[in-house]
Write a structure and sequence with these properties.
6-stranded parallel β-sheet; globular; alpha/beta
């Protein structure tokens, strides 16, 4: 059954992690191969890739779907991802979702849409029989990134760790790994499509057993200028991996290493599997191998059950000690079915107060990290150039916004000199920046 997507217009909306970003781009590629056109203004159908990492993400997904239904009453909505994985048939009906696709089944989206249009509109769904035991790899393929300047490349799926607060193992399933040669061929296609930067992703990237070998192979692809990781857990930062990163000239000087808490008791309650000292040793190895200017960013969770004021202060002091660059700050969100959901946690007012204090510290640490790049040439990969202004990222994942040369375009590499810092972004003094990088 084919041909029913030809000349159909579609929109695509994606929430959440870099793994979702990869999957959204791969879905877009697969739809365009069927003859559909990505066109957000008047779509015949919409694809939504959902996230469920927090209660806020669940609410945002529902809001997205309801807005689509309100603005385009006759649109066909195909929804997938972690939030969709948990919805009942009744909830899908209430939201007006026509096609529901669980994790590990996203490659089926074009077929299900073809079938829907061929049969004149019959709702359908595709889910793994048991996501927690499913060992299949979702056969998505990416030829060229369309949604982003850089390409995301997924190597690993699922997680076996079961942090006490995390819903991911229940909705993403057990850890599985992508075939090495298949992933490498995809990387070569991406570079051939004139994309100079690849970000390696996975639900738990460090569980990809051949990660050092894969980075080494990537570094040998002619035309690939930058290699990044989405994030990597602290205990996955091995000496073998760091040796390869140090020897790979295309690897960028930035690692996002999730901390969550700097207090040992809270880390144990979270079932993170490491202590603050373990984390500190990982950061020390990173800086010893990759240099003191490497950007170590992290995640910081507030209000986890058992985090009293003393634990919070220890975490804040640990962040200072680690000299983090970017810190992603977010409040704890109870997820049904997880161990932590059964425990009492700090009240909302207390969490908001801690968030305000942490954001102030995070902002200062980021400014301090970025200040070392002031008044010296840095190279950015241009992500956007319009109205005489260009923005892009340095290799160390610092955003720069400056006046654009007349002939600059997206995916150009440009050397600039930043003179100031504004709202999380380096500028050359000609740009007033009121946004902040994610």
């Amino acid at each position: 059954m084919s041909g029913f997507l030809r000349k159909k217009l579609f929109s695509i909306t994606v929430q959440g992690c870099r793994t979702n970003l990869y999957e959204a781009d791969a879905i877009l590629n697969s739809l365009e191969k069927r003859g559909a056109y990505h066109y957000e203004q008047r779509p015949d159908f919409a694809v939504v890739v959902s996230c469920s990492i927090t209660a806020s993400a669940d609410r945002k997904f529902r809001k997205i779907v309801r807005r689509l239904r309100r603005e385009h009453p006759d649109i066909v909505i195909a929804a997938t991802g972690c939030c969709v994985q948990q919805l009942t048939d009744e909830q899908l009906d209430e939201l007006g979702i026509d096609i529901a696709v669980g994790n590990r089944q996203k490659y089926l989206i074009p077929d299900l849409l073809e079938e829907y249009f061929a049969r004149g509109g019959r709702p359908s769904a595709a889910y793994s029989d048991d996501i927690r035991t499913d060992e299949n790899w979702d056969a998505l393929q990416l030829d060229a990134p369309k949604l982003h300047t850089r390409a995301f490349l997924k190597l690993q799926e699922g997680c076996d760790h079961f942090c006490s607060y995390c819903i991911v193992p229940f909705v993403r399933g057990k850890s599985v790994q992508r075939d090495f040669d298949d992933a490498l061929e995809e990387a070569k296609r991406i570079v051939k499509a004139k994309c100079p930067e690849i970000v390696l992703t996975g639900v738990h990237l460090g569980l990809y057993e051949k990660l050092p070998e894969f980075v080494r192979a990537l570094g040998e692809i002619n035309g690939l200028k930058r290699i990044r990781f989405g994030s990597i857990e602290p205990l996955a930062v091995t000496d073998e991996l760091l040796d390869v990163l140090a020897d790979t000239s295309a690897f960028c000087g930035h690692l996002h290493v999730p901390l969550q808490s700097g207090d040992d008791r809270v880390l144990k309650l979270m079932n993170r599997g490491y202590t603050a000292s373990d984390f500190a040793r990982s950061v020390e190895r990173i800086r010893n191998k990759l240099g003191e200017t490497v950007h170590v960013s992290t995640d910081f969770m507030l209000g986890f059950p058992g985090e009293d004021d003393a634990a919070f202060k220890r975490s804040l002091a640990f962040a200072e000690e680690m000299r983090f660059g970017k810190i992603h700050v977010f409040p704890y969100s109870p997820r049904g079915g997880t161990t932590a959901a059964k425990l009492p946690h700090a009240d909302d007012a207390e969490i908001r107060q801690r968030e305000e204090i942490t954001l102030e510290t995070a902002g200062r640490l980021h400014r301090e990290y970025c200040s070392q790049w002031l008044n010296r040439p840095v190279e950015i990969l241009v992500e956007e150039a319009k109205d005489g202004i260009m923005t892009g990222l340095t290799t160390e994942y610092v955003r720069v916004a400056t006046k654009a040369p007349e002939d600059v375009k997206k995916r150009d590499f440009v050397k600039v000199t930043a003179l100031g810092y504004s709202n999380g972004v380096l500028t050359d003094g000609s740009v007033s920046w009121d946004g902040e990088d994610d």
